[in-house]
Amino acid sequence: MADKPKKGLADVVAASTALSDIDGQAGRLFYRGYDIHDLAGRTTFEETAHLLQYGSLPTGEQLAAYGTELVRGRKLGALAEANIPEITEKQAPMEALRTLVSLAAGDDPDKDSNSPEANLRKAARLTAQQPILVARYHAARTGTTIAEPDPELSIAANFLLQITGRTPGEHEVGIFDACLVLHADHTMNASTFAARVCAATLSDMHSAIVAAIGTLKGPLHGGANEQVMRTLESLDPSAVAQSVRDRLAAGEKIMGFGHRVYKTEDPRATHLRKMSQELAEASGDDKYYRMSKEMEEVVFETKGLYPNVDFYAATVYHYLGIPTDLFTPVFSVSRMSGWTAHVIEQHADNRLIRPDSEYIGERDQKWKPIAER
Ligand code: COA
């Protein structure tokens, strides 16, 4: 008989990876051995994606070559392009991305190959296209036309320009770029696990990414950042503490708090809190930052829970002018770098992922013909 399952697979080591590592007790996160405190604000998202997908921080030459590949990869194929208007009309942002990435597989010249070279090319194209898909979705629903992506601009700068319609300042670009770095990979989180399960059947990279996007969408995972903003908007600024206490007393979960692995502050939240404060001060309206701080204090006092990555990411994106329902898509823009790297890693040393289950249903049932049931 199988062992008792660990609900939610807590503490189960499901894969070996050289991509990222968490020290949950100390609150530390590493990408390929680099502490994210050393990467955020110093290494661009493009360098981080290269680190994850290729295994090393790029030299100047490697970065130039990878940058060229990313710029070329921004061009959408005919199938995705043609379907944006109708998909935008019928699907919410994360649903649309799930569909558009699936369509992008049909446009991808490497769609039928799982070779390491093809996977690296697909990883670059998927990383380049995800922000464009989000921007094009937003443009379609707002009836605006966006300029072709500027090849001189980074992924972060181009995204902010395409979403807000104005040239972002250097400080904003730096902050958003660091946000993308902070969200790039996170060990065996639910969406990465979903991607690896799919890839382990020797299915293709786009299928694995579609599984990951569907998994990221849920409010217990990537969907939490949008819910944090909705919570802030729903609270009376003069009664934050009491409302949060009431919600907790009623057994409600407060989105953006708690974590399966971190037993102390999520190291990404440390950066995001600071960014949120800086942007709030620069905007001249720090209401949501102050409310967030108050929420943080009350949730810690009442439940001993720390904010996770999604909590301060919400106000950071809000201050950057990103619409609330695009917060989770932004998460996917960054995590694409990690998901694709995990698919490459899974294919490089594959075994089907097929765990066991504990049977808790009836046994020894006696079959009866339909008339006697
Ligand atoms: N608000 C209130 N209580 C919370 C909480 C939250 N955000 N997160 C956890 N808890 C409580 C649970 O109610 C539970 O209490 P109980 O033991 O009295 O029933 C306990 O802490 C353990 O929570 P559980 O949901 O079992 O932990 P988990 O490891 O399965 O889940 C999360 C981890 C992240 C899913 C969970 O903390 C959560 O739902 N957070 C909110 C959603 C979120 O921000 N997700 C983004 C994660 S990066």
From TrEMBL:
Q: Which residues form the active site?
A: 259, 310
State one Pfam family annotation.
Citrate_synt
Q: Could you tell me the keywords of this UniProt record?
A: Transferase, Tricarboxylic acid cycle
- Catalytic activity annotation: oxaloacetate + acetyl-CoA + H2O = citrate + CoA + H(+)
**Recorded GO MF terms:** citrate synthase activity
Please give the superkingdom of this protein's source. Answer: Bacteria
Look up the signal peptide feature and give its range: none
State which pathway it belongs to.
Carbohydrate metabolism; tricarboxylic acid cycle
Gene Ontology CC: one annotated term: cytosol
The family note in this entry says: Belongs to the citrate synthase family.
Q: This chain belongs to which protein, by name?
A: Citrate synthase
User: What species was this sequence derived from?
Assistant: Streptosporangium subroseum
Taxonomy, top ranks, is: Bacteria, Bacillati, Actinomycetota, Actinomycetes, Streptosporangiales
